[in-house]
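Structural prep section.
Before we set up the soaks we want a predicted structure of the protein with aspartic acid in place, mainly to decide which crystallisation condition to try first. Input record follows.
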Amino acid sequence: MQAPPKESGRDEKSQAAEKMNDDDDDDDETRRRRRNPGLAVVVVHGGAWAIPDDLAEASMAGVKGAAVRAHELLSRGGGSALDAVEVAVKALEDDAAFDAGLRCRHSPSLALCHGSVLTEAGEVEMDALMMDGRTLRLGSVSCVQGVANPVSLARAVMEKTEHAMLTAAGAARFAEALGVARVPQRELVTEAARSEWERYRRYRHAVRALFSSERVHDTVGAVALDARGDVACATSTGGITNKMPGRVGDSPIVGCGGYADNAVGAVSTTGHGESIMKVTLARLILFHMEAGKSPDEATTLALSHMRDRVGGHGGAVVLGRDGRWGARCSTERMAWAAVAAGSLYYGLQPGEVHIEPLQ
Ligand code: ASP
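Run finished without errors. Recording the tokens verbatim:
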């Protein structure tokens, strides 16, 4: 999706003068970033849960590919932080290794494909959020059906409506008005999602089995910092297996599934939605950063609070306005990847970090 067109009717001189004034307003950090687009940072996650071994490789490949693609857009394509988080999350929605968006188009093996999980009624209902740290504008959709990329619909809510959130039939009608192609339910449902649905026929059983044993699911998310010093976040999910139809999780809720503010940084979270909402996890992490904690320290504190206070587990990717970043989880695993300072970082188990130079 393109950025809104430039205002017409202004000559180049006045635009240049405006830009100079803009530059004057910028602080040292923003000027430093603008001189060096390579300082752009992207961090993505593929959900905090007990990722089974047979899904681990596809999950890692998915997050690495999405982070590299989004960073290329920032460093070479001149894209914004918003463009970068949308590209990253769309790539993960399109990858059926993850519980978001459409079934796989390019996953190596259909048998490993997961895709969005199913409600009690055996249907896919998806939630997504996007937030712009420059203006604090946000867009989100919940309980949306038949859309391949809910994250792009969330962006359209932000950019093309006067609202922040659209849900269910209203969100579907909006997608239709935009000309977004409708995807039939059967194409959104993978074999793996169907067999998990059969295993956890009852939502309560799923919650107990998946969450109390520190197992949540593979929601996807991204945070980015661009060459202008702007931050953005995006999160997208199919939710949790055998949820009640109409259940809305944390992912599309601002301050819970994500938050972005140029004054502090950006966060995308994952984990047990009902717990994340109780502690407004994304905003809590940024609150700790405002108090001087690093992204890692802030995330660890907030996740510990969520575990101790409400017994919930999850994870987050976090980015400070100065480019410091973190990826942490309190679950058994969370596939994450980051591109920063010319290197690709990635990990799966808590504390595991691999580093490769970027080509
Ligand atoms: N937070 C998501 C939800 O509860 C699940 C996840 O992160 O995997 O809908």
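Observations: The chain is about 40% helix and 20% strand.
Flagged for discussion at group meeting.
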